[in-house]
Each structure stands twice: as structure tokens, then as C-alpha cells.
Amino acid sequence: MINVDLLFSIFSWLFILYSVIVYVGYLLASFFSFLELRDYKQNNAIENEVPLLKTSNLPAISILAPAYNESVTIIENVRSLLTLNYSAFEIIIINDGSTDDSLEKLITTFQLKLDTSPRYNFMHTAKVRAVYKSKLSSFASLVVIDKENGGKADALNAGVNLAKHHLVCCIDVDCVLEQDALVKLVKPFLNATKRKVIAAGGVIRIANSCVIEDGKLVKVELPKSFIARAQLLEYFRAFLMGRMAWSRIDGLLIISGAFGMFDKNLVIEAGGYNTDTVGEDMELLVRMRKMMIKQKIPYEVGFIPNPLCWTEVPEDLTILSKQRNRWARGCAETLWIHRRMLFNPYYKTLGLLSTPYWFFFEWLAPLIEFIGILFFLYLIFTEQVNWMYSISFFIVIYFLSVLFSITAIFFEEYSFQQYKNVKDIFKLILASFLEPLCYHPLVMWYSVRGNIDLFSRKKGWGKMTRKGFTK
Amino acid sequence: MSKVLVVEDNEMVANAVAFKLQREGYEVIIALDGREAQKELAAHQFQLIITDIMLPYMNGIELIEFVKNNYESIPIIVLSVANQEKMIMNAFQLGVKDFIAKPFNPNELILRVKRVLQ
Amino acid sequence: MKIVSLLKELWASFNGLPFFVKFNITAGLLFFFMIVFLVFFIVSLRYRKLLIVVKRKSFEKELANMINEYLFLDEYSEKQRSTFITYLKKDQLAREVALEQFLIFTENFTGEYIERLKFFFEEVGLANYLFNVLAKGKWVDQVKAIHILSELKIKNDELMVPFLKHKRQKIKEQAILYFIKTANDKPLEFLEELTQELTLWEQIHIEHSLRYSYIGEVPNFATYINHKLTSVSIFNIRMIRLFNQYESIEQLMPKLNEGNQAIKKEVIRTLTTLNVSNALPFILQNLKDDGFLVQKEIIKAISQMGDYQMLINLNLNLDNPYLELAFQNAKYNLKSTS
Q1: What ipTM is given for this predicted complex?
Q2: CA distance, residue A140 to nearest chain B CA (Å)
Q3: Which of A123, A186, A337, B32 is buried most, with the most CB atoms less than 10 Å from its CB?
Q4: Long-range contact list for A110-114, CB < 8 A, 24+ apart?
Q5: Does the entry feature the keyword Hydrolase, yes or no (chain B) (predicted)?
Q6: pLDDT for C239-280, tens place per residue?
Q7: What's the pLDDT tens digit per position in A114-133?
């Protein structure tokens, strides 16, 4: 028999402590995010990008887009990439051993021919079968790598190996980029003074239900399905509140794999993307930051709040569950690889705030929640529930979650509001009230599953998962 | 009276060009993007098109191609920022009559319009 | 009375609750009220923004029309002018819209129209308005004011000079650009005074202002290549290349003995682009002592101005992968062209 009373009172105190921490964190996040957005807006009040487009002084960029069985959309996506506003860039499409006709399509459409110029493998990757370039001068900036399947991280490394330019921009090939995405994302690198800019990331937006033509975003629409709207709120919270605030206090740990720019030589020096984790985007940034701290070089990570990159989120629960499963594993793996940073004052903000945050709130929270629910079920089953307590706890959690979402909507409104219709705002508010009940339990369960998968297949950390390009 | 289609995404510039042309006795219709231009082309008979290159939805080059394929006889003048040489070359290859670089002098625009329409 | 007693009763029963429940209910209520407040706030913000959009549209239309009338009509009456002025005085938003429009017109027009715009801008009191902002406005507005004044080339150097040393980066940047855009000659004089390195961002905007706004003679960039700030020196070496100032090659050559690798690299790149092939022996002079970034640049110089044999004779120590790649590439290219 479990001593329910004792457990309950321990639980209650822990709960209060936890919610106080969460609440203080929420206030701080709102505060920092507000400051960051305000400063960004003020500093960019008259920014016109024309000088950037006309100069020959811009650092050139290599865009890296790994593709695995994207035959249906690849041509359109490449065409749209080719029209980005930027004066000097190359596009490297990495065909990661696709089993469809992606490569053939690319070869015929863009009239590719074999390129035999020397290559150097700064990082080891799965075998590169061939490199292609276009015969046509209008596609001179296009490079296609054909390699054996090795997963996303491996494909990106192959791209980094071949990249001609000093800056690499890693994107998901199915993302829709704004025309001026590169010009905006490169800004932190241009404004660098004494501190070296190692990477820059941006806000990821949700493209579901938006009108997209020829790989370009034509009209922004609020997603129609609830599941996409719930993810929209999640993204608002993560980007407009979370990452904005982390960026303010220089504690950003992740740049989305969907759209991020890096200093190529530093990526190579740090060893490139880690092929042993599914959280390669987070892991790389953490490793690069660690390297800079160890070398005692002042550095910074840029973050741009403008909507630059639009991506379709899964509306299908099976796909969503795979995605979240992968995120949970990626998070756990990264934390494990860099466990020495946790609570380590040597790494300052990263050690004392960022990694603990990821440990408690990104990794541990779903697990605790899950155990809490199991415990609650046990109490119901044994008829030991104190309903008054339970309901009051529930009310706090519920309103706090809603408050988070509503605040995130405020930041959307304050920053670069994309949904101009008042009706849309009400729809989002409604979704905020439903999300903690109808959506959150699902994603919590998916991340618990992710952790279970991780531990059950454990053969030494990392090696256990073959990652194709699960989306 | 000649009818002119002005395709320009900056409304203010479009209006100014239209204002000036109207003063010179032309009838002017404005389209703010390539698609609107297509609609106007279907609805009216134009004697001249003045178009920008950087346009939303359908850029100027695509529009020029479209005009050449469907309304071959209408002459085109490009009015655009001259920062993309490749595009300008492209436009000339497609057979545009003239290119005016922004920033431009409205009086000069009128002169060139008159020359093309002669 | 009834309500008061009801509240009292509620309070009493609330007090009677266990501590945790009391805590939870209080916190829950607090969050709930915050939610309600935020929802109202967001919705009112949205409505306000929508209203502004509508108002803005009508301002844009009317103001643009008035500016067009001034620019393109042969007869312009005193009455039209005074309507414009009263219109501007009516509303802060109207002034903002008008300022934007003047900017767009100046960006798109040349010739006598620019002069007319400028004259009109001063006549309707917008210039004075901006001077006031410069004297006592918020810093964000000051940045905008300097930008507009410099685009329209409305001079007031006295007012601008202090901004060159302003602690706000953005104000300083605009002030620098102002002096370039409005200069009649020597647009880069301010460089002498500079004490902080230029960012790439600033360099790009300086270049742009020199090319597209400044109307005087192109400055002799060689004057500043020995500047104490590395970024200034590099910027000017680069400008020699972009403006094809062949006459400065003689002054560039001594910079090949420069210890600063970044500067040396830039010099080699400029000599390469200007195709000064007789500089090659001097470029190769200290090859062994150069860092790999300079060595890489030298390889590029040879692949453009030299030949295959020259490259092979370099006898470089290729233990740096970046260098080796550059070397192999140069070899590949020279072989395929010869």
C-alpha cells in the first residue's frame, strides 16, 4: 500500500515550487522577448535592402538542401530557390540516396553534367557517387550531389564539404522561403563587430492552408485544421517567446534545421553535423558554442524575428507522432552528449540556464506529466482521489497553459502579425483554450514514446536509430 | 488616343507615371502585378505596355514572354532598377522596345513613349 | 446587501479551505484575469491597426495626388499649397505618410523633379519639422529624420555633426551616410575622425551612398589605405578594385609588405581583379611566411594571372586542407584552360 497522504503532500509542495518556477520563467521570457522584439524593430526601422542587393561586397552563401525522395516537388523547389534575392549564392542539392526519380528529374530539367573538379572531404560522409553542375549559364549557381543514403546530418555534411562559400545556409528543401530571406538572415553576420557571429537562425512559420504558387508564398492564411492551429500556437510560443527571449540573454541552444545560417569553417572545425543523433540541428549549435567558449573567443548567435521560412506541419497524427518522437529523442540525445554542461558554471548562461531549462522543461516535463497522470489514474482506481485538490491543481495548470498561448499571440500581434483578420485572432484564442485539453496530451504521449524507444533500443547512446528522412 | 498599360508594384510610382501620361493625353490603366496585367490585357486593347521587372507573383520577364506569345504587336518599355543585368539582357532578347532605368526622369519617359508609339 | 453577505460567505468558505487549494484557486484566478486582460488588449490592438491601415490608405491616395499635382501640373495655386499644409498639420500619421512618399518619389525620380520635390518639401514645412525632431525627438525618429534629409539632400551640417559621434550605432551610421550623400566633394573625409571599426553593413551602405547618391567626383581611395583602422583600410583597398582605380596601383604595391594578413589578402585580391600581372613576383615575395588565408589568395592570383608551371613551382606546404583544396582547384582549372 502506498502512503498516499505523504506522497500527496510531497507532490503538492513540488507542484507549487514547479509552478512558481514556470510562472517566473514565463514572466522573464515575456519581458526579454518584448525587449528583443522592440530593439529589433527600432534598429530596423528604416532598413532598406536595396544597397545589399546592389553591392558586390556581400559575403557569398552556399545553400544546402538535402533531399530524400522529394521527386514530386523538387523541381519547383529548386526553381524557387534560384530566384531568391541575393547577389552571390550557390545552391547545393544533396540527393541522399533517393529511391525515386529525383535525380533524373534534376538532370533533365536543369541539363546537368558531371563535374570532376577536385573535392576535399573535411568530414567523413557516406559515399558521394557524383557531383553535377548545369550546362546552362542561367543555372550556373546550381550544384547537385548524388550520394548514398546516410541520413540528413550526413547529407548536410556532404554539402558542407563541397560548399564553396564562407557561409552555409541549411534548409529543408520543402520549406518555402521569403524572397528576402537570405538578405535578412545574413544581417547578423554583417553587423558583427568585436564578437564573431557563428550562426544565425530565424522564426519558422506554418504554411498549412497558405496559398503557395511555384514554390512562393502568395497569401498567408490561418491553418484550417485544429491540429495545425495547435501547432501554430506551439510555434508561436517556441519562437516568439522562447527563442526570442533566449536570444536576448544569449542562451539560444537550437537553430532550426529548417532554416539556419552558419560560419562554414567553424562548422568544419567543430566536426560538422553529428550523424549519431536525430537532433542534429540542436546538437551542432551546442557543440559550436562549446567550442567557442573553450577557445575563449567572444562570439554570438544571431536571431531574426521576421517571418522568413514557411513550413508545412503534419496534420496526420501518424506523421506528427513520428516527428515528435524524433524531437524527443533528439533532445535527450543532445542533452546526454553534452551532459557535462548541465549546471556547469564554466559555460555561464548555457550551463546554468539553457541546459537546465532543456533538461527540466523540454525533456523531463512530459515524463513527469505522464507519471502524474498514471498516479492520478491509480488514485481514481483505488478511490483515493481528493477531488477538490485535483480540480484546483487542474485549474492552475490549465489557465497557465492558456496564458502562455495568449501571450504568444500577443507577441505575434506585436511583432509581425501575419493574420490580419480579427476573426482569425478569435479562432486562435479559441484554439488556445482547446489546445491544452485536446492536443497537448497527444504530443506529451509522443515524446514519452520517443523516450521509451530511445531506452528500449539502447545499445550505447545514439547508435540505435536509423534515421531516414522522417518528416 | 493611345491606351497604355502601366505594370508597377509600387502604387505611388504607378500613379505618378499614370498622372504624367494622362497629362500628355494618354489613357492609362494600372496593374500592380503580373496577374492583374494579364486580366487587363484580356479586357482592353493597348497600344503600349510599360512594365517593371521585379513584380510579385509573376515577374516582368514572364509577363513579357506572355505578351510576346499572346499580344505580339503591343510594344513594351521596361521601367526598372538596373541591378540585374541578366534580366535586362533577357528582356531585350525577348524583344522589348526600350529600357528605362530607375530612378528616371518622367519627361524622358514621355519622350521615349512618344518615340515607341510613332 | 445580499451580494455583500454572499461575498462574505464565499470568503469565509474560501478561508476554510486547505492551504494548497487556496493557493491554487488564487493562482488560477490570477492567470484567468491575465488571460482576459490580454485578450482584450490583443483584440483592441488588432482593431486599432486595422483602422490605421484604412486611414493610411486614404492619406496615401490624397497626399500622392497632391504631390503629383505639384510636380506635373503647370499651374499650381496658393490654395492647393495651403490645403496640403493644413492636411499635414491635421494628423501625425498624415505627416508620416507624406514623409514616406517624398522618399519614394526621390528614390524613383531624377532630374529637375528632384529639385522640385526638395523645394516643395521645404515649402510645406516638412524640413523644419524634421529639424525639430533632430533637436528633440526620440532616437528612432531621429534616425528616420537623418535618413530622409540625406536622401532629399537637404543640408544642415551644423545640426548633423554631433550625431557623427552619437553612442547609438544607428544614428551614427545615418549621420555618416548623410555626410556622404550631401557632400559636394571629399565624401570620405569623415573617415579621418573615425575611431571605431566599420562593420560590413556600414561598408556596404557607404559604398551604396557613394555610388548612387553622392554626385561629386569619385574620391581617391588610396588616400585612406594606410588608415589606423583595419576595416577602413580594407574598405578602401576594395573600393580601388570596385571603382577600377588603376592609378592607385603604385600606392597599393608597398602594402604587399604589410604584416596584417587581412589587409594583405585584400591587396592581392585587388591586384588580381585589376589584372596587374607584373605584380605577381612581388605578391610571391614572402610566400613562406604568409598565413594560409594569404597563401590561398596567392593561389587564386596565380590561377588568374599566372600559369600552371608557376603554380607547381610554388612548393607550398599543403598541410592545411583549405589550402590544399584551393591548390588542387587551381591546378585543375589551369590544366583545363592550357
Answers
A1: 0.89
A2: 12
A3: A186
A4: A110/A78, A110/A134, A110/A136, A110/A139, A110/A142, A110/A144, A111/A135, A111/A136, A111/A139, A112/A142, A112/A144
A5: no
A6: 999 999 999 999 999 999 888 999 999 999 999 999 998 898
A7: 999 999 999 999 999 999 99
